[in-house]
């Protein structure tokens, strides 16, 4: 499934290569893999068009790189295998830069970084400690940094993992989960600000350990594709410098999600 970027200058049909802002030669068209199920970062609207903060940011990065970009929606479990199988050229899907993932693929510099927290029912007495979580059921998304964090730090918790966070939110709202662990922006905008999330709240500290959450979310590319990685790096620096990043971040969140 592909969704063409709108608003970019049309490229000549005969063009075989485009020169990026980093000065390296890039293909005229780049395909980006994204999950399409992680609002407000990336999601599908009612007509099946992929939208979100990361899509607006990707549009801006591709414009700086002077390339046309299309999107492929890929289930989270297959997001890295899809890149390695050449289904797309890059991943922009809230993929955290971790040492484990860097063994398989390369990353750009980060383009956002937010902490992780727990969401629980407001009326509950749940404490975010090993003892406080011992008898409750916590949900998170499968094959994420959040799952690894939970298994490493709370091994005795009954952990349920889901294909998407939306599935976890449904079980939390229906009482089949006692808590959900994820990043603060996705939990806030994707659940707490919705009608289903009205009786829930953040609880406990924010978690930012680099061992699990890396250095923020970056653009994933195949090993050895340094020109593409460097072009994304330069484009990220440019949108940060000229105010484009701030405008996109403010549109979706009302504040800067780049992090320290």
Commentary on this structure:
This protein has 2 domains: 2-113 and 215-252, D-Maltodextrin-Binding Protein, domain 2; 116-212, D-Maltodextrin-Binding Protein, domain 2. Strands 1-8-4-9-16-10 form a 6-stranded mixed beta sheet. A 5-stranded mixed beta sheet has the order 13-12-14-11-15, sandwiched between helices. It has a 3-stranded antiparallel beta sheet with strand order 5-6-7, with helices on one face. The chain contains 9 helices and 16 strands. β5 (37-38) and β6 (42-44) form a beta hairpin. It is of the alpha/beta class and 260 residues long.
Q: Tags for this entry?
A:
D-Maltodextrin-Binding Protein, domain 2; 260 residues; disordered N terminus
Taken from the alpha-carbon principal axes, the silhouette is globular
C-alpha-based Rg, rounded: 19 Å
Q: What percent strand?
A: 25-35%
Strand line-up of the largest beta sheet: 1-8-4-9-16-10
Listing every helix as H and every strand as E from the N terminus to the C terminus, the arrangement reads EEEEEEEHEHEHEEEHEHEHEHEHH
Fold-level CATH name of the largest domain:
D-Maltodextrin-Binding Protein, domain 2
Quaternary organization = single chain
């Amino acid at each position: 499934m592909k969704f063409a970027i709108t608003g970019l200058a049309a490229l000549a049909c005969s063009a075989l290569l485009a020169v990026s802002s980093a000065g390296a030669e890039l293909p005229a068209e780049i395909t980006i893999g994204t999950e399409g199920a992680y609002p407000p970062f990336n999601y599908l609207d009612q007509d099946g068009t992929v939208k979100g903060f990361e899509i607006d940011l990707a549009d801006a990065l591709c414009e700086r790189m002077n390339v046309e970009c299309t999107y492929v929606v890929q289930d989270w479990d297959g997001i890295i295998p899809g890149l390695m199988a050449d289904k797309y050229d890059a991943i922009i899907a809230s993929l955290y830069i971790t040492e484990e993932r860097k063994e398989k693929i390369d990353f750009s510099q980060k383009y956002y970084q937010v902490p992780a927290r727990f969401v629980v029912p407001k009326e509950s007495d749940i404490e975010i400690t090993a003892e406080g979580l011992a008898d409750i059921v916590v949900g998170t998304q499968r094959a994420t940094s959040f799952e690894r964090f939970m298994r490493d730090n709370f091994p005795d918790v009954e952990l349920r993992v889901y294909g998407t966070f939306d599935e976890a939110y449904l079980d939390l709202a229906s009482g089949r989960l006692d808590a959900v662990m994820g990043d603060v922006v996705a939990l806030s905008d994707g659940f707490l600000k919705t009608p289903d999330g009205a009786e829930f709240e953040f609880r406990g500290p924010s978690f930012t350990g680099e061992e699990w959450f890396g250095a923020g979310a970056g653009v994933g590319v195949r090993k050895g594709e340094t020109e593409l990685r460097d072009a994304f790096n330069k484009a990220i620096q440019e949108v940060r410098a000229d105010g484009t990043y701030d405008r996109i971040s403010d549109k979706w969140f009302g504040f800067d999600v780049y992090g320290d």
